[in-house]
Each structure stands twice: as C-alpha cells, then as structure tokens.
Amino acid sequence: MMQLRANMDWMLKDLADSVPQTRQVVVLSSDGLRMAQYGADTDAADRLSAACAGLQSLAAAVAAEFPHSNGTMRLVVIELNGGFFYLMAAGAGAYLAVLADEGVDAGLMGQRMRDLVARIGGHLSSPPRHDGQAT
After folding, report:
1. Vertex 81, ends 86 and 57: CA angle to 5°?
2. Higher-confidence residue: 125 or 37?
3. What is the pLDDT of residues 42-97, one digit of tens each?
4. End-to-end CA distance of the chain
5. Tens digit of pLDDT for each residue in 88-130?
6. What is d(CA 95, CA 85) in angstroms, rounded to the nearest whole number?
7. Going by C-beta distance under 8 Å and a sequence separation of 6 or more, which residues neighbour residue 89?
8. CATH for 2-129?
9. Is the pTM higher than 0.90?
10. Is 97 exposed, middle or buried (0-12, 13-18, 19+ CB in 10 A)?
11. How is residue 39 annotated by DSSP?
C-alpha cells in the first residue's frame, strides 16, 4: 500500500507540474478519506477530501433528476473568486480533486485529469467500507 501511495503522489505531482496554476491535487475515496495528495499539507488535503464527499453526494442527487442517468457523477467544475475546483470520478469509489488558480487553462486541466484517470483509474478504486474497515 505504501508503494502505491508513493507512486500516486508522484503521478499527482506530474499532473500539477504539467498544468500551470495548479495549487493542490488530492485523490480521495467516496466517503471523503484522503488516499494521496500533492501541493498542500495533510490538514488542507483532509478538509478538501471531506468537502468533496459532500459535493459528490450532492451531484448524485442532482443526477437523479435526469431520466437516463445512473446517478454517477463524472465531473464537477466550480469557478470561484480566485480559481477553479475540479472533481472527477476516478475509479470505483475514488475521485480526483484539483484546486487551481484563476489563470489555469481549463481545457488542459480537464484533459490531463482524464489522462491520469485513464492511466491509473483501476488503481484508484477504493473498496467499500463496513464499520470503518475496508472490505
């Protein structure tokens, strides 16, 4: 697990380095637990992960309003004063979150996030938890 996390941190750094204006990259489980991070301290990454879990849940509720949706969130982008937030599904029960400054190339960010997910999506899966334990 430690080797996978080290590899994941390196890949997140690669994403951040390839898209100027990237501030923070986090991989998290659907229940809001940080799995890997780059560009922020652990506390900031944990806060972002927890917020993403709520946002993913909100996106699933909105998806229920579409008649042919299976309720799966693929991508959420939020423009804020000062920057952008991206949340992308990255495997079964896993998500990729990015914070970027307002000068970021949004198209490049989306492309690099999709490329990363396609390359390592199977490794980003997080098994369901029961009573706080992965199954």
Report:
1. 35
2. 37
3. 999 999 999 998 898 888 888 888 888 777 788 899 999 999 999 999 888 889 99
4. 15
5. 998 888 899 999 999 999 999 999 999 999 887 666 554 555 5
6. 13
7. 72, 73, 74, 75, 95, 117
8. 3.30.450.30
9. no
10. buried
11. S
| Helical residues (DSSP H) of the chain, grouped into ranges | 2-18, 42-63, 106-120
Contact 17, 98 (CB under 8 A): no
Please state the length of the chain: 135
Region class of 101: left (phi > 0), else alpha (psi between -120 and 50), else beta: beta
Q: What is the dihedral of CA 9, 15, 18, 23, to 10 degrees?
A: -80
Domain ranges for the chain, please list them: 2-129
**AA letter at 47:** R
